[in-house]
Design a protein that fits this description.
The complex is a heterodimer. Chain A is an alpha+beta fold. Helices cover about 55% and strands about 10% of the residues of chain A. In chain A, strand 2, helix 2 and strand 3 form a beta-alpha-beta unit. The radius of gyration of chain A is 21 Å and the shape is globular. By secondary structure, chain B is mostly helical. Chain B has a two-stranded antiparallel ribbon with strand order 1-2. In chain B, a hairpin with a 2-residue loop joins strand 1 and strand 2. Chain B is elongated, with a radius of gyration of 17 Å. Classes of the chains: A alpha+beta, B mainly alpha. At the A-B interface, helix 1 and helix 2 of A face helix 2, helix 3 and helix 4 of B.
Chain lengths: ~220, ~150
């Protein structure tokens, strides 16, 4: 019996680990599936929406992003490239700054403030490019003002806007919309309002999903 | 040709205790690594309170090898350590050698991961630090293991 005991112990641990892992995975997947419907209705579109690409696009890729989130930063440039390469595709960016990221909310405010001057996407790209720099800063105000100046924003206006209620409300509106849809993590991406599975949040799979949506030729149900 | 009976030796009491400790630490590491791997596969990121270190490290390009989360490799390594320590405690000499090999590899890989966090990412993930501590403990136990007894059981 003693000879077989180590085999039994190892087999027991293997079974327990596999079972525990599978149960946890199913629980997590069910939670995600429960909160993000397969075909959700389009979010409200307003003046403050940040889109890149033609308004009559066949494919809409909607991203809930956090400027301090590294995977969002890694996707930023490939998505920019994709929207330039794929005709009839557009990107919508929505703010979802996570609480655990100290400067994410300020970064969202900075992007919105730059957006009021028509420089949202320049600030968006700059924030992602310089993510490693400002992420650790204790006070990001001066850094962001420098960024605003570098993209030709009126800095005096930027300084006013970045702490304004209007900008704060825009960020909050995106976040509320995301929360309503069950967004928990960033990036959360929808292609023609269908949520992309977490394992597909890479340039190759996103490109494939966009191509597939393009072939389907179904125009997004946008108000 | 050797048979199974001649391959089994009787380790000393202190050696058995060390192997049991090794197996227990490996179990703790296996639990943590499995949890992290499952979260990654499910599309969630582990959160370390209000510290951004976890997302910076676990969301970085270094957190995956060919698309597979490093934590999944970690879980496989801890399971191998657990298996080897269990068999070594029951007197299998090959398991003892394999245990030394796998813990040495884990120690070197842990040093690399700590270097990545310190010098490339400039951020530390608490889960990774706990795992590193466990690997250092395993290495300490490996060093403390008395030389193999040649006494057949």
């Amino acid at each position: 019996m003693k000879r077989y005991l180590p085999f039994l112990i190892v087999a027991l641990v293997a079974v327990l680990t596999a079972t525990g892992g599978t149960l946890l995975y199913r629980a997590k997947r069910q939670t995600l599936a429960a909160v993000i419907p397969k075909d959700r209705p389009p979010a409200e579109e307003g003046d403050g929406e940040h889109t890149l690409g033609p308004a009559d696009a066949i494919v809409t890729l909607e991203e809930y992003g956090d400027f301090q989130c590294p995977p969002c930063g890694a996707l930023s440039e490939p998505l920019n490239q994709m929207v330039h390469e794929v005709p009839k595709m557009r990107i919508i960016f929505r703010h979802f700054p996570l609480v655990m990221h100290r400067n994410a909310h300020d970064a969202a405010m900075a992007a919105e403030a730059a957006g009021l001057q028509g420089h949202f996407w320049q600030m968006h790209d700059l924030l992602y490019r310089e993510q490693s720099v400002w992420s650790k800063a204790l006070d990001v105000r001066e850094l962001f003002e420098g960024y605003a100046a570098s993209i030709k924003c009126n800095v005096a206006r930027f300084k006013r806007d970045v702490i304004s209620d209007e900008v704060s409300a825009r960020v909050q509106a995106d976040q509320d919309e995301g929360t309503k849809l069950g967004v928990k993590n960033t990036p959360t991406i929808f292609v023609n309002y269908k949520p992309m599975p977490p394992g597909s949040l890479n340039p190759t799979d996103l490109r494939a999903a966009v191509n597939e949506a393009m072939k389907a030729g179904k125009p997004p149900a946008i108000k | 040709m050797e048979n199974a009976a001649t391959e089994i030796y009787a380790p000393s009491r202190s050696t058995v205790i060390i192997y049991i400790l090794t197996a227990c630490i490996a179990l703790a590491g296996l639990t943590e690594a499995t949890y992290l791997a499952v979260l990654t596969f499910a599309g969630e990121m582990a959160v370390c309170g209000d510290s951004p270190g976890c997302s910076q490290v676990l969301g970085s390009a270094y957190a995956k090898i060919h698309g597979v989360p490093v934590s999944a490799f970690g879980a496989a390594a801890y399971f191998t350590v657990f298996t080897s320590a269990t068999f070594a405690a029951f007197g299998y000499p090959k398991a003892r050698k394999f245990l030394a090999l796998i813990i040495s590899a884990m120690f070197l890989f842990t040093l690399w991961l700590l270097g990545v966090q310190a010098f490339l990412l400039h951020a530390f993930c608490r889960y990774c630090l706990v795992s590193a501590a466990m690997v250092f403990l395993l290495t300490g136990l490996l060093v403390a293991t008395p030389p193999a007894s040649s006494r057949p059981s």
